[in-house]
Amino acid sequence: MSDLALACPASPDAPADSVQAEERAWVERARKGDVQAFDAIMMRYEGRLLRFLTGLVSDVEVARELCQDTFLAAYGALPKSHGEMRLSAWLHTIALNRARSHHRARKHRIVVSLGDHDVPADGPDLQDSTAEGDAVRRVLDRLPAPYAEPLLLQITGGLSCREIAAIVGSSEGAVKVRLMRARDAFRRAYEEEVGER
Amino acid sequence: MSDVECRTVERWVQAPDELDPLEARRLDRHLDTCADCASYQAQRIEIDGLIEVYLTQAVGGISVRDTVLAQLSAAPTQQPEMSGSAPRAISRPAGQPLSWLRRRWKQRIPRIAVTSLPVAAALGIVLAFLSPAGRLGNGPQPVGAWPHLEISIGYPMTVDPHHPNHLLAGAWGQVYQSWNAGGSWKELAPLPPGLVVRDLAIDTMDSRRYVVATRHSVLLSTDAGHHWTVTASNLLGAENMFVMQHPGAPGTFYLGPSILWASRDHAATWTPAGLGTVFAPYGIQSLAFGRNGTLYTGIWGGGVAISRDGGSTWLHRSRGLPRNVLSVTVGPTGRLWAATDRGVYRSVDGGRSWARSGPATALFATAVIDRGSYQLLGGSHPLTNGLIGSDNRIYRSEDGGRHWDPVSEGLPVAPYAYGFIPDPSHVNLVYASLDVDGIFRSDDAGRHWQAINAGLPITTQEGAPDLVLFRRNGALWISNAAGADPTVLTVDETVQSAALSPDGTTAAYTTGTESGWALRVVSPGAASHTILSGDRAIPRHLFWSPDSTRIAVPSNGAVSISSVSSPEVHWSLSAREHLLGWTADARGVLVWNSGSGVVSLRDAHTGTAITHGSARYPVLPRLAPDSHHLAYISGGLLTISTWRRSEPLSRTSAPARCLLGPWSSDSNRVLLACPRGAQIRDPAGHMLIQAQAPRNARWVPGSNTDLVFFQDGSLWRWEPGHFAWQIVHRADDVQPR
What we know:
The complex is a heterodimer.
Chain A: H1 18-31, H2 35-57, H3 60-77, H4 87-105, E1 126-130, H5 131-142, H6 145-155, H7 161-168, H8 172-195
Helix pairs in contact in A: 1-2, 2-3, 2-4, 2-6, 3-4, 4-7, 5-8, 6-7, 6-8, 7-8
Chain B: H1 6-12, H2 21-33, H3 35-59, H4 65-72, E1 108-112, H5 116-130, E2 157-159, E3 167-171, E4 174-178, E5 186-187, E6 197-202, E7 210-214, E8 218-221, E9 229-232, E10 242-245, E11 253-256, E12 260-263, E13 271-273, E14 284-289, E15 295-299, E16 303-307, E17 315-316, E18 325-330, E19 336-340, E20 343-347, E21 355-357, E22 365-374, E23 383-390, E24 394-397, E25 405-407, E26 419-422, E27 430-434, E28 438-442, E29 450-451, E30 467-472, E31 475-480, E32 487-488, E33 495-500, E34 507-513, E35 516-522, E36 529-534, E37 543-544, E38 550-555, E39 558-563, E40 567-572, E41 577-582, E42 588-593, E43 598-603, E44 609-616, E45 622-623, E46 629-634, E47 637-642, E48 650-653, E49 659-663, E50 670-674, E51 677-681, E52 687-691, E53 698-699, E54 707-711, E55 714-718, E56 725-729, E57 733-735
Antiparallel strand pairs in B: 2-3, 3-4, 4-5, 6-7, 7-8, 8-9, 10-11, 11-12, 12-13, 14-15, 15-16, 16-17, 18-19, 19-20, 20-21, 22-23, 23-24, 24-25, 26-27, 27-28, 28-29, 30-31, 30-57, 31-32, 33-34, 34-35, 35-36, 37-38, 38-39, 39-40, 41-42, 42-43, 43-44, 45-46, 46-47, 47-48, 49-50, 50-51, 51-52, 53-54, ...
């Protein structure tokens, strides 16, 4: 899946959609260098992409960096873009590729993140968290990529199974099966996590 | 309207909004009448809600817009009028407890913001060291210790600066030496077991002084590798990746990451160099020496930093440079190069500013060298010699980096370049460490390459496919290890055992019964054909030669060697003799004698004994794919050795009722099938991971971490840190057994 394929109307017969029409207008203006139009795109999709990336990489700071990279890449690719993918699916495609690159990079480099048990008593920028959120994070972290990617694309991105299939390179039917298995795996693991306390 | 099956409903509720009107009505009707499916639907909604709430809270008020806009434009933005939906607010209906989740308690736990963690860790490391208890080699575990992740480091190598044909390399925890520029290698005195060699150096002041950096320690030999002394251990916060000698101060060595250590006495003692904070967030990855003693370091997440006082203080120099730097190097003219996850960057002003160089395509650069200019005999103008390594290709430039061309001659497919090691005496001679493919050498500045692995324990992975065989209803199937496109290979209904050739192109299998069996070979898309048959005990084990051209089949007191088309030879095997596998050159086979316990090398064509090992094995050992290592379990101990050695490499305890499983294809891991799950052990016998996998677990081909196994009528895949996931529905078992 190329990063460069981007939003154009799927067909002349597609029903009028004010949201998509608005986005098409933004894309056209952004292609010509209108930064404000691109900012509108970011405002609409920043939250979704951050949630999507956080679900994939488990680290909010890494997700923020990847989200920045995604938007910068998207802006750079706009003038060269073509195709029939919705803006939402296109942005998530770029984000997914960034996340996969991040995971791929871990083969070579040292990753020195502290585990939960190494939390000092005091420190700057403390954030509160609930045990429930931690359990969700741990469970998401354990989901294999073929499960996590379509699940998060659907939940955070609101993408259809057909769009998800195009992004992850699978069939629509296989995506639905993976969604089913992903949720089953999540449910079992979450019950274990909560049950251990 | 006919009712729909529950299984169909389970798929429909994954995306109910995408159903057509008829399907939607059928779904609603079913949910009204099926309590189980209605509950399943409710669970799906709650799962999605849990995830959405967590992610929404996690990202909180984080925004990237300002940073992105600052990079795109200096003009202030105006908020456009917007329509369309805001992100969907997720909330749980008040007063309704989670129906199926047992929520015991809700607790607020303080947690450091992630941005602060690496810096805090670095400070913690330094403070721990400066305390009296934090002496090198002693002291308690530091607070905020940086846990390592298992990484691969290829085959580290170094060149003797005074004897260019003299090389040292690290492989599987041992040091190897070559005196003919890699033409052949010989193992030096053994290092303590359980170590991983990360880098090596030969002292420029004394060619018999070898320095070896392992993960947390440093070993020193003063007699050219005949004896080793540990000069540093338990290095705080260290995950050593390099050891380098300062060219301008030969008594000084540097060691890192994740912080930098320095020795001023030829690697005898070590002290930390500089505070760790500069190396946040993820530590330095490489070190390079510039003019006037300047040090340059590449930091993952931190760009490049320089030091002009031997590492005591550092300044960041990263304008225009991506933050994730894997390698930094200095060319002869002082040009700086940085290999980043977004390509190669170059600086001509000492790192003050950087500009992208290298191929125009997106590039995950892992290594770069600049050898400067050289003149070809008869050439009209000087050429520059530059190489870029990436995660799947090597590039070279002859014009100072203006143009880069991919190189493939003599290289394996998709080479992952861990590093380039230039020969200091010959500008055209360069070595490359290529992941599991081993060490390669180029004599013409990177145009052509050749593998120089003779004598090194390397199992090539070229062409290693990600394929698994499994049986379904007696027939043999094949799929990739992700479960895509399962293909039936044969309609034989009595497949007994099977093995895939190392290159993944052909499957050999036995079919039939004790009264009549056949050995057949088949390739996806082609018909199977019989190459061997018999009417007595059906062979249980098939051994492909490493070059995928022949199969050795022990059966009924003989070993039959067959090509993929017909039998070739067979020779006798006594009742006490057991075939272990092929040698790496496919010319011999190894045989274990249960009476003497000795392993012998036989000529594959004639069965003639060539030589014997000196060790005795009380039980049938398992031969690793490198044809070098053996493992067995006896007396509650897992013993790992090499068949030529008299003494084992390691002996560690094995839980009761554990059975020895297969070696990984890189010969760096062995599997133990235990009642509580599978244990993954390293060659030192240490248990690395306990996998939730049953006794029939096998390695995913090409992996030393992931497993496939058969359970509950399906084929599953397990990866460390993740749940097992079903890759093939309806499988009887996984092959080979």
